[in-house]
Amino acid sequence: MVLLSPFTFLLSPLSAQNMTCSPFSRYAYGDINENIPASYRAMGGVGYGMRSNRVICAAQPASYTACDTLTFMMDVAASVSWSRYEDANGMRNRANGNLEYVTIQVPIWKQWIAASVGLLPYSSVGYDIAIADSLKSDYHYTKTYYGDGNISEIYGGLSFNICNWAAVGANVYYMWGTLQRMRTLSFDEAGLTPTIQDEVLSVSSVRVRTGAQFFHTWGKHSVVAGAVLENKMNLHSTYLVIETQSEDSIPVYEGLFQTPWMCGVGVSYTWANRLTVGFDYERQFMASALFNGMAGHYSDLQDRNRMALGIEYRHNPTGRRYADRMLWRAGLSLQDEYLASVGAMKLSASVGIGFPLHSVGTVVNTTFEYSRRGSNTGLVDNQLRFTLGIAIAENWFFKRKL
After folding, report:
1. E strand or H helix at 108, and its extent?
2. Distance CA 175, CA 371 (A)
3. pLDDT tops 70 at residue 49
4. CA-CA distance, 391 to 383, in Å (whole number)?
């Protein structure tokens, strides 16, 4: 954790801000983050089969040993998003801005061992919805749904090259944060008592991810295949639902929560260090994970699938013209919602450009992403997100000759 000390001032802003403003975050753990770096987000969110000496991919712990043995790396990203939500009550526009993540990576022993640490978001809740209606035109009421909070995490990871063509790694995450959801039923008519239900989930827990990669290069061609795995784990958490009517507060129940089994696989192909194509598939087994002490159809959780396809191109990595060294990226991703009753599918398209700097091994990465989520309830979420990342790579670990 010593490597994190210069950046501990970022801890409070990352855990305190609203990472989302989507009504789809109303359920379960909210919007779950993939923790893909900005450069790979522009490629649709691939990462499990990606291996680069200029990118820190915290989603794949086996990739850390790809770093140069003399290089210190750091990656910081922030984003701003514009969203439009459509339902039976009309359209609403929202804007949101976030610090996304801070990651660091260093070599430990030659090309065989490397480490990474950082601050990441795990999931986010953020919405504010009001629905007015009446009952037989006699009673007029308003239902209000409000949610706020994040689960953040600090991670530390190690990667080992077990031979010249395979690497393994593991991340250990400490998760913390609070998710709060409030439902209010209020009446316009005097004498009718409003009802408030306040639901609070607080997390302070640990989880583990393991990864492996297999890689081979011949001539101008390189291929990488990778996989990651997380076991189902109990969350050390407190959960309380309080119903308030008039001046009486009644605690309802507490439950047991789990992070799901998760597996992901990916593959990438690179030609002449110019063209890279990658594909990822991920499955989270949410249906078998406990949420508030229930699993399967009792908790309304279903397994979540995500697929991503991306491409990166630069004309000449050592070219004299600046445009030759620029990185051009594009990608697509498709994922479903892990709430069965919502039935939402999310389709995303992304493009981005990497701007290398002349003086140091630093790349400024920009990503534009458009996503659309639609559900069987009639709710549609259209979002445009711009992410700016700065990936720094500097030669710290070499001996100067006197």
Report:
1. strand 90-109
2. 27
3. yes
4. 25
Rounded distance between C-alpha atoms, residue 223 and residue 262, angstroms: 24
For CA atoms 227, 232, 234, 239, the dihedral sign is positive
Beta carbons within 10 angstroms of residue 43's beta carbon: 30
Distance CA 259, CA 261 (A): 7
Q: Which residue has the tokens 């508030």?
A: 292
Among all chains, which residue has been given the structure tokens 């749904």?
145
- Angstrom distances, CA of residue 396 to CA of 67, 101, 107, 116, 251: 13, 23, 10, 16, 56
What are the tokens at 389? 């990342």
Closest CA to 212 of 172, 165, 180, 146: 165
Residue located via tokens 């850390």? 64
- Its sign, for the CA torsion 49, 51, 57, 62, is positive
The dihedral of CA 13, 17, 20, 26: what is its sign? positive
Structure tokens given for 136? 């037989």
Q: Torsion over CA of 308, 314, 317 and 322, rounded to 10 degrees? A: -130
Structural domain spans, the chain = 2-395
SS3 130: strand
Give the pair of three-digit tokens for residue 332: 């697509």
Structure pTM?
Answer: 0.89
Give domain 2-395's CATH superfamily.
Outer membrane protein transport protein (OMPP1/FadL/TodX) (2.40.160.60)
**If residue 12 lies in a helix (H) or strand (E), which one and from where to where?**
helix 11-16
Taking the C-alpha atoms of residue 267 and residue 278, their distance in angstroms, rounded to an integer, is: 6
Q: What is the pLDDT of residues 139-176, one digit of tens each?
A: 778 888 889 999 999 999 999 999 999 999 999 999 99
| Angle subtended at Cα 90 by Cα 89 and Cα 93, rounded to the nearest 5 degrees | 125
Contact 341, 317 (CB under 8 A): no
Q: Can you read off the two tokens belonging to residue 106?
A: 């260093």
**pLDDT tens-digit readout, 230-250:** 999 999 888 888 877 655 555
Cβ–Cβ < 8 Å for 211, 227: yes
- Cβ atoms of 216 and 226 within 8 Å: the answer is no
